[in-house]
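Q&A log
Question type: sequence-to-structure
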Amino acid sequence: LYQHFKDIRSIILAVNARTMQGLIDAMTANAPGLPDDPGERIHAYADIYLDYVKAHRNAWDAMFAWRRTEGEAVPDWYARQIETLVEMVGDCFAKIEAGPDAGTPQEAARLVWASVHSVCALESGGRLDLIMQTPLAPLVHRLVEIHIDAYAASA
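Response status: OK
Response body:
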């Protein structure tokens, strides 16, 4: 491996890049068959995320175990991959009538991603049941619905 990679951090980053790209590919591949309704589409993206994380649990957990060292910049590829995922959900929020206090569609998308990922991380670490008795998938869909409702309710 070290003939191809400088150090262990380079190996980890390469695995992380492949893992993130896998999620993007799964979401993109399924996009043509997803509902046209933007809210339903966000829920469908959540299902794709949950399925991907379940199918690639070890790689997904390892990706979030990686910590940047102080002063280390976020790699450009990683920032682009995150933006691709945010844009997919943000495009859905852009089609939902929003009120004056809703914020931008991209902000709403970031909040959904942060919420969904947070409960998935708690579940992966065996800690979700300490604060919630709801199974992961229904909880994720409830979070998505809360964000969609909050975005639209300010109308």
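Response note: Helices lie at 8-30, 38-55, 57-65, 76-94, 105-124, 128-131, 136-153.
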